[in-house]
TrEMBL record:
Organism: Jejuia pallidilutea
GO MF terms, alphabetically ordered: peptidase activity
Protein name according to UniProt: ATP-dependent Clp protease adaptor protein ClpS
Cross-referenced SUPFAM superfamilies: ClpS-like
Domain Adaptor protein ClpS core: 20-83
Keywords from the named record: Hydrolase, Protease
Length: 91
């Protein structure tokens, strides 16, 4: 194996290890901006500015990644979003 192939293989392995999951929040016609903002602050530890920006992105683009990280950290956060009536999933 050449050194170039070995380096390429190591980079691919490193990218795979660093891959993190994301919580994607989807737009709906039910929840108010205030409810979405409050829920993002509570469930995802957003600042009020982060939560407001995410709510606007969701409103205008249809979806937004609201949190990235390890699956075990994201699962309870996504559950809180779902329990609050928001549409979200871990991808």
């Amino acid at each position: 194996m050449s050194s170039k192939e070995k380096l390429s293989e190591e980079l691919l392995l490193e990218e795979e290890v660093l891959k993190q999951n994301e919580i994607v929040l989807y737009n709906d016609d039910v929840n108010t901006f205030d409810h979405v903002i409050d829920t993002l602050i509570h469930a995802c530890d957003h600042t009020s500015e982060q939560a407001e920006q995410c709510s606007l992105i969701v409103h205008y683009k249809g979806k937004c990644t609201v949190k990235t990280g390890e699956y075990d950290d994201l699962k309870p956060r996504c559950s809180k979003l779902l329990e609050a009536g928001l549409s979200a999933e871990i991808v």
